[in-house]
């Protein structure tokens, strides 16, 4: 069992999104894994999925990341079934810019009409009149490109002006796209692929921290195929923790603007993930973990 440092703030402390009144715990919950295999179709155990969502809120999670293209529609429907009417202070964050096809593929959905329809689907399935925060997901399956995001982002700005979205973020983006986005509107959050090994965003995270902008890493333990590392396994053993807990704790210590959204459909894994927010990594172990990227 992981050793907890009870003097640390619960759930990793808090973060306030810039230009907003929204403050959340740094340890949140990502709903993607509530859908069926391949993030498609219903969960194997719907009752367990509902229980995980309720347990997360009961433990103090106040930040849920979702999207209507998970399932599609499945995770948002589960969130509504489990949690509606929503508790005061719960921030629900979604993404637009993709859709699922009957063959389970992920394809872009960045036209004005597609973004408006995607937002309407999110609101309907979540039972909301407006979303606190929406990320525009761009880039490709292999990561960000430097293609312009101006047109779809301006479409989201129009939806915000209609009162359907309160704040905007961007996902799967490069620093150049972030600069382009900030020239168009306020950006309060970025979601990108980042973990112990995949560290191409190191300088980007530092820039965002200076700007006060949140950064939520996805694939915190490598992706759909978990990272295999002797250093990580050894650190977990020394700390009496799991590899995922160490990876999450490393992310929380990496920068104060990092918000975590680990997902799971297991109550036991949920408890482990949340406990990682109170796991303090000694400096020597942090140096060992940093060496994983240097050696890769």
Tell me what you see in this structure.
By secondary structure, this protein is of the alpha/beta class. It has ten helices and eleven strands. Helix 1 packs across helix 2 (74-83) and helix 1 (46-58) packs parallel to helix 9. The longest helix has 15 residues, at 112-126. The radius of gyration is 18 Å and the shape is globular. The two termini are 29 Å apart. Mean pLDDT is 94; it is low at 1-7.
Brief write-up:
The protein is an alpha/beta fold and 296 residues long.
Helix content: 25-40%
Cα end-to-end separation: 29 Å
| Largest sheet entry | 7 strands, parallel
Strand count: 11
Strand order of the largest sheet: 3-4-5-8-9-10-11
SS summary, helix count: 10
Query: Structural class, from secondary structure content?
Result: alpha/beta
Mean pLDDT: 94
Shape summary = globular
**Beta-strand percent range:** 15-25%
How much is the radius of gyration in Å?
Answer: 18 Å
Unreliable runs, pLDDT <50, ≥5 residues?
A: 1-7
Q: Can you write the helix and strand succession as a string?
A: EEEHEHEEEHEHEHEHEHHHH
Overview features:
single chain; about 300 residues; alpha/beta; two-stranded antiparallel sheet; about 40% helix
Helices and strands in order, then pairings?
Layout lengths: L13 E3 L6 E3 L3 E2 L15 H13 L4 E3 L8 H10 L7 E6 L1 E3 L5 E3 L3 H15 L4 E7 L12 H12 L3 E7 L3 H10 L4 E5 L8 H10 L2 E5 L11 H10 L3 H12 L12 H9 L7 H13 L1
Parallel strand pairs: 3-4, 4-5, 5-8, 8-9, 9-10, 10-11
Antiparallel strand pairs: 1-2, 6-7
């Amino acid at each position: 069992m992981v050793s907890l440092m009870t003097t640390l703030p619960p759930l990793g402390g808090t973060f306030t999104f810039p230009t907003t009144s929204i403050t959340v715990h740094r340890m949140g919950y990502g709903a993607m894994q509530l859908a069926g295999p391949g993030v498609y179709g219903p969960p194997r155990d719907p009752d367990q999925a509902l229980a995980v969502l309720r347990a997360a809120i009961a433990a103090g999670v106040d930040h849920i990341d979702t999207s209507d293209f998970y399932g599609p529609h499945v995770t948002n429907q589960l969130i509504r079934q489990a949690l509606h009417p929503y508790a005061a202070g719960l921030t629900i964050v979604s993404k637009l810019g993709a859709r699922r096809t009957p063959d389970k593929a992920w394809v872009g959905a960045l036209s004005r009409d597609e973004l408006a329809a995607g937002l309407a689907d999110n609101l309907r399935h979540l039972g909301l009149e407006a979303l606190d925060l929406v990320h525009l997901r761009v880039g490709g399956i292999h990561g960000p490109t430097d293609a312009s995001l101006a047109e779809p982002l301006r479409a989201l700005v129009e939806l915000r002006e209609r009162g359907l979205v309160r704040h905007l973020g961007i996902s799967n983006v490069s620093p150049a796209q972030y600069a382009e986005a900030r020239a168009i509107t306020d950006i309060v959050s970025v979601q990108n692929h980042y973990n112990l090994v995949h560290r191409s965003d190191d300088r980007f995270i530092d820039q965002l921290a200076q700007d006060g902008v949140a950064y939520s890493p996805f694939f915190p333990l490598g992706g759909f195929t978990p990272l295999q590392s002797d250093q990580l396994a050894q650190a977990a053993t020394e700390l009496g923790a799991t590899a995922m807990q160490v990876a999450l704790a490393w992310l929380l210590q990496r920068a104060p603007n990092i918000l975590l959204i680990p997902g799971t459909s297991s109550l036991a894994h949920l408890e482990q993930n949340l406990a990682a927010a109170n796991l303090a990594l000694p400096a020597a172990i942090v140096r060992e973990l940093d060496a994983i990227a240097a050696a890769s």
